[in-house]
Specification:
The chain has two domains: 20-75, Orthogonal Bundle (DNA polymerase, domain 1); 80-356, TIM Barrel (Alpha-Beta Barrel). By secondary structure, the protein is an alpha/beta fold. The longest helix is centred in the middle third of the chain and has 16 residues, at 147-162. It is built from twelve helices and twelve strands. The model is unreliable at 1-11 and 356-363 (pLDDT under 50). The protein starts with 24 loop residues before the first helix and ends with a helix. It has helices at residues 25-34, 40-51, 65-75, 135-139, 147-162, 187-198, 220-227, 244-250, 259-273, 291-305, 329-341, 362-366, and strands at residues 80-88, 93-100, 105-112, 117-120, 124-126, 141-144, 174-177, 212-216, 234-238, 277-283, 309-315, 345-348. The structure holds iron/sulfur cluster. Iron/sulfur cluster (SF4) binds at residues 127, 129-131, 134, 136-137, 180-182, 217, 360. Iron/sulfur cluster binds next to helix 4. [4Fe-4S] cluster binds at residues 127, 131, 134.
Length: 367
């Protein structure tokens, strides 16, 4: 296997101590045995964490106190503490700002819809991709999140839904890796997190892989690698414009992997998994919302992905003080019409959390 290029190397500093959710089922048994405990304690811990959604050792009363203390200090170090919750959309959207063990701030957003509840998770603190219209991109990358730090965002949200913190008790059904960070730049930890999120309880949180979306700005070698993982998660490619000239500016990693290469990798992913790829397009006034760009987008997607693409147009949620703004509604409608006219399915994404600055990274930036 070829080694991944330098763009994937992120600082390793600040990662938290090992946690149960970093480990596979077999590794959990080994870790428990190394502590001199019976292997079945691994299953007990997993049942509490993944099945009952608790990370509080005091609640694990079926484990004798001495063993519990030993296991908890070795395998359940505190990971994330909530700094604050901000709610909007009549209580259906809640953004949480978390503080990690080293003071790093990150965020996740829980969105309740009539037919599903989706959590948008962060995979890195900050982001190194430097997209100029994005709040997270302005601060640069602080560090990768550990597998367990990703999983714990999901566990906490699943518990919040179960406990009725967003109205009627419900079930967390969907996960999108669209919070802070470029998920495929933290590749191994994100893949491990997908397994922990999707493995059936008590090995994992039991959310269907088909209900998980992994987004990327287009790290081509990582997309190709993902295609060989045997997963059935949805891939979302943040394209934002179909022409290399503008994309070199809007998504600077495009200077390394061009639009055509990204779409070819997306095609490989669609072919391997049988899943349509989401093409994300943040529509920005007078920047990428021109009719000719809609036509070119439609043409390129037809050529590279055929029926295997769906375009999500996302009205830009402007960063405070930024020159970037959302496109007017008639321009947005015309854009969508043209992409559809090219035979490519295209809809406008329901944008949640506008009042609470839910464009990725804004809450942490204000933190
Ligand atoms: S848009 Fe996504 S990839 Fe680009 S800087 Fe922001 S978080 Fe990173």
């Amino acid at each position: 296997m070829t080694s991944l290029p330098l763009v994937f190397d992120a600082p390793k500093r600040g990662l938290p101590p090992r946690h149960l959710a970093d480990l596979s089922t077999a590794q959990r048994r080994d870790a428990v045995a190394e502590l001199g405990e019976k292997p079945f304690r691994a299953a007990q811990l997993s049942t509490h964490y993944f099945g009952r959604l608790t990370a509080d050792p005091a609640a694990m009363t079926d484990i004798p106190a001495a063993a519990r203390d030993r296991l908890a200090s070795a395998l359940l170090p505190p990971l994330l503490s909530p700094v604050r919750h901000v709610t909007c959309d009549d209580g259906d959207t809640r953004k949480t700002l978390w503080r990690a063990h080293d003071g790093t701030l990150l965020e996740s957003v829980l969105m309740r819809y009539h037919d599903r509840t989706t959590l948008c998770v962060s995979s890195q603190a900050g982001c190194g991709m430097a997209c100029p219209f994005c709040a997270t991109g302005q601060g640069g990358l602080q560090r990768n999140l550990s597998t367990a730090e990703i999983v714990d965002q999901v566990r906490a949200a699943a518990a919040a839904m179960r406990d009725g913190e967003l109205g009627e008790p419900g079930r967390l059904s969907n996960i999108v890796f669209m919070g802070m960070g470029e998920p495929l730049a933290n590749y191994r930890r994100v893949i491990d997190a997908v397994h922990r999120i999707c493995d059936p309880a008590p090995d994992g949180l039991g959310i269907s892989q088909r209900s998980v979306t992994v987004s990327t700005v287009g790290l081509v070698p990582a997309i190709r690698k993902l295609a060989e993982e045997g997963l059935s998660v949805r891939l979302a490619v943040s394209l934002h414009t179909p022409d290399d000239e503008l994309r070199d500016t809007l998504v600077p990693v495009n200077t390394r992997w061009k639009v055509a290469e990204v779409l070819d990798a997306a095609r490989l992913y669609a072919d391997r998994t049988g899943r349509r790829v989401s093409i994300e397009y943040a529509l920005i006034r007078d920047i990428n919302d021109h009719p000719w760009r809609a036509d070119l987008l439609g043409k390129l997607l037809r050529r590279h992905l055929g029926q295997l693409a769906h375009v999500n147009v996302i009205p830009l949620n402007p960063t405070p003080g930024s020159k970037w703004d959302a496109s007017p509604k008639p321009v947005e409608r015309e854009f969508v019409r043209r992409v559809n006219a090219a035979g490519v399915s295209c809809t406008v994404r329901d944008t949640r959390g506008q009042e609470i600055a839910a464009a990725c990274g804004q809450l942490a930036a204000e933190g």
